[in-house]
Amino acid sequence: MPESREPSHKSRSHPFVFLAAVVVAVILTYPFITPVLLSIITTYVLYPIVKRIEVHTRSYHIALGILVIIIGLPILFAVFYLSVNAALFFQDIQGFGDKIKNVISGVSDAISGIGFVTYTGYFMSAQDITARIIGFSISLVSDFIKSIPFLILEVVVYLFATYHFMLNGHKIIDVIKAYASTLPAEDEHFFSSILKGLNRGFDVLFLTYITTSLIITAVSFVGYSIFGVPHAFLLAILTGLFSFLPILGVWMVYVPVAAYMHYEGNILAAGGVMVFGVVVLTIFIPFILQPYMGAKKSGVSSLTILLGFFSGPVIFGARGMILGPIIFVILETIIVEYVRYRISEHENLVSAEQS
Question: Is the C or the N end of the chain the one with fewer CB within 10 Å?
């Protein structure tokens, strides 16, 4: 008579239908992966604030609604404002480029007129560089105009997902923990390493973006003050806030500022703000300083953070600024945790055999 087997709660059972459903869910979610991840990070960071607001409102739903409104209104207002004035920004950038070209041509003609023909080539190169920068700026504004409908949709997904995770986050975590407890020891450890990597990735991103936003605020204030931009302190605060929202970005502040300075007739200040914005606020701080700080603030290898910040945008585009670090941190955590687990298991087996 065949021996009866007790049902195992630790069986390695991952039905194909379940795995297929997970893969399909990831594929369908990918177009909105950036706002979803941002909503998870927002929930992770702001949940204690909602609990404090709940003390005064005596309703968690009301407290949560207030927080979502506080987060959503500035974003929607900024998108609406830039959408309405996008055509004006386009015209100002084009006019700004034409004036710079005229200035460079005038200087080149003057130098040629006094006999220094050899040096006019430098100004033609400068004219070409200026044309490329202006062309890039125009392309940036054009791309923004085309992406407005999808951007609004991303903002809606971000706000709704934030509300959902704030409301049901603890239930989701409980279900994940309950599922992990049904797995074999090795699978459970693998699953926990993924969660640990996510937690590290969110910590790195949050701490890095907070610190970076503060630095961008301070640097922006100095830069705007140097170029005589009105309301430099307020604009610096806005620049810092927009740097914390990768859906938007710091360019949505300094490009309108440069356009305004050009509109006021201050061509030198407009050019200075654009160069300062592109070189310092868009390239140096996000791509050099931010990865360095991310490595300093986590227990993850600095090479992992750097690869995440640099490879992410190359592979995934703009959303890679968020996806890259998270994926690389998760991968390193899984590899390191698994190697440690196997070494520990081997050492325990050797100790058991020796005793």
Answer: N
